[in-house]
Each structure stands twice: as C-alpha cells, then as structure tokens.
Amino acid sequence: MKNLLFAFILLPMLLAAQSEPLSDTTYFVKQGNQFFEVITFIYPDGSEQTTKTLIGDTAALVSSAKARMTSKAASMAVDIRYVSTFRKQLTALVRESNAVLALTGIDPQKQVQDEHVAPFLLDGWTIKRDATTDPLVFTVNGQGNLRFSVNGAATKAGQLFGATLRLKNYPSNGVDTDVYRLQNGVFVNADRTVILRPPGNNAPVNRAASPAPVKTKKG
To answer: Which of 9, 40, 93, 148 has a Cα-to-Cα distance from 139 of 20 to 30 A?
Structure first.
C-alpha cells in the first residue's frame, strides 16, 4: 500500500519534470474495424512518449475529426478577438503611462522597466528572424532608457512591460515588433517568426506537428 501511495505521489512530479516536447506526430491506425489515434512526443533528451487511444469505427473517426475541427476553429475565433488587439493594448498602456508622467513626473513604464531589466543586461542574448540568428545586446543609456542593438548595429529603443517587450523600429524604421515571454523564458512575437533567447536558453519554441498517413494493420 505504501509503495502504491508513493507511486501516486511520484508520478505527478515526474510528469512536471518532463520538459516541453521538441515535436509531436499524430496519425491514425486501423485494426480490424476500429481506429486508434497514436501520438508520439519527442523530447530534447531524445526520449519518446507514445499514447494510443481508441476512437471507434469509421463513423466515430469521421465524427471525431469533424468535432475537433469545429472545436478548434471556434477556439481560434475567440482567441483572435484578444490576440489581434495586443498591439493596440500596449500602445494604450504607453499613452496611459505618459499621461501619468505628465501629471506626476513619475513614469510607470520606466519603473516597470527598472524592476525587470536586469536579466536583459546579461551578455549572450540572441534574436532569430528569417532563419538568421544574430547577437542581441541590451543597454540602458544615461537617461535610463532601454536600448537594444542587433548584430552590432546602431541602438534602438526598447519598451519593457514585464513579460512583454516592444522592439521599436525593428526590423525596419516605422515597424515595431512586440514579443512575449513563454513559460520557458524565451520571447516570441505573435506568429513566432521572431525569437529572442536569453543567455544559454535552448528551450524548444516551435513544435512541428507532422501528421503521418493513416496506417492500416490487419487484425
């Protein structure tokens, strides 16, 4: 009984310790008249975890695919209402901070920056865009403003909001890029085409799902 209790306690700890998968592959297997969904996760250490779940007969497989499609689409339709306004929300927060600064002489955004900037001032940050990875250096100038430089180029302004960072005039003048911190500490923009990595952080970002053709096994 004690061993069983220990196993129940240890299992959640082991699952929590497992890192985010590098990739996952999903496909269907037919055995007799029944279909199964097989999902294989591949982890950074090379280990794999595979689950096999019974779906049912042909009607159940089709129904499952339809339900997954409509459910996911509905979720996306809800999420986009918020995600598509993130840029405007950040801009509104900057305006609010500027208004408070004008009234009180205290800059809330600057205070947030000062509270969270320390990790950015470490050496070893990188930025990846269009499959090219460049060194990224953050500094704070004499006026206390956050600046960044990509691959040794002239510095540009950065606005730090805690878990979100705005890179002003990046990748080009007049275009700003907002990046958001993932749970693993990596910062990405909304479509993950821009990736900022802290020093020594090689945690996976893009999980490439590669559906395989339906496999059939006689049985």
So the answer is: 93
> Poorest-confidence range of 19-33, 147-161, 170-184?
19-33
**Of 20-29, 53-62, 145-154, minimum mean pLDDT range:** 20-29
**Residue showing tokens 């005039």:** 169
Question: Is 0.70 surpassed by the pTM of this model?
Answer: yes
Q: What is the CA radius of gyration of the chain?
A: 23
CA 136 to chain CA centroid, nearest Å: 19
Task: Provide the b/e sequence for 25-50 (b: ≥16 CB within 10 Å).
Answer: beebbbeeeebbbeebbbeeeeeeee
pLDDT digits (tens, 9 = 90+) for 68-96: 999 999 999 999 999 999 999 999 999 99
Instruction: Return d(Cα 1, Cα 5) in angstroms, integer.
Output: 6
Residues 188, 2: contact at Cβ < 8 Å?
no
Closest CA to 126 of 197, 32, 217: 197
Q: Token pair of 69, please? A: 């499609």
CA angle 199, 202, 208 (to 5 degrees): 145
Q: At what angle do helices 86-104 and 108-116 cross, to 10 degrees?
A: 110
Tokens of 187: 């910062």
